[in-house]
Amino acid sequence: MISEAANVNEWGEPQVPMSFESIRYNTTEKFARSELAILEHIQPHDPLCSLKNEIIKICSYHESCPELEMNYLLDTIKKLISLEPITPITGEESEWVDISDIDGGNTLYQNSRQGDIFKEKDRCKYLSAIIWNDGTSAFSGRAYVDNTCKELISSSQIIKEFPFVPKTFYLDVIPVPISKNEAEERNLHYIEDGNGDCHYNIIKNPKALNTVFKYYHIACI
């Protein structure tokens, strides 16, 4: 039974002193050890259990280097796991892999650090410079600047200079239905949806390209 003098909250439950956690777990590392021990006891086959020592090390580093922001650390780990570079692409010779043999002998190199960067004879392209969004899905490919359908913009854009930090711009497009016959007669770039219907895409706000082309050289098709 709790005495009247006990420290209780508004529901009559005993309150844990504010200093309790700091007394029990005075370091992030100790807290991590305790939580992982519980996990290991309850779910011994959880994949995190095999990484227990590595996780504890990371927690101890965070404790000893408070200036290292946790979000920055986690973002870096996430990038490395996803095979994303954490420093700019240099464009140096050591970064390129010759894949000319799969392009009919034409000069073509792929960047070993960022697989969607390619180098041709006199220029380098980033394939994911623009991602289109039609309201239902996001995709790479091509879209027309306006209804005249004269200027076609590709997701792939030309890198201005190195060092280069890959950056993707997300632009809205409007799908315009069209028959396959008409599209071919007009020599338009069109997309088939698999159900016999076709459409081409127009950029919703062409002015948004201004931001893209401050970062990349324009690559029209």
Topology summary:
Layout: H1 20-24, H2 28-42, H3 52-64, H4 70-81, E1 96-98, E2 109-111, E3 117-119, E4 124-126, E5 130-133, E6 138-139, E7 142-144, E8 152-154, E9 157-159, E10 169-178, H5 180-185, E11 191-192, E12 198-203, H6 209-215, E13 216-217
Parallel strand pairs: 5-10
Antiparallel strand pairs: 1-2, 2-3, 3-4, 4-9, 5-6, 7-8, 9-13, 10-12, 11-12
Helix pairs in contact: 2-3
What does this molecule look like?
This protein has helices at residues 20-24, 28-42, 52-64, 70-81, 180-185, 209-215, and strands at residues 96-98, 109-111, 117-119, 124-126, 130-133, 138-139, 142-144, 152-154, 157-159, 169-178, 191-192, 198-203, 216-217. It is an alpha+beta fold. It folds into 2 domains: 20-81, no CATH class; 93-217, no CATH class. A 6-stranded antiparallel beta sheet has the order 1-2-3-4-9-13. It has a 5-stranded mixed beta sheet with strand order 6-5-10-12-11. The protein has a two-stranded antiparallel sheet with strand order 7-8. α2 packs antiparallel against α3. The longest helix has 15 residues, at 28-42. Mean pLDDT is 87; it is low at 1-6 and 16-24.
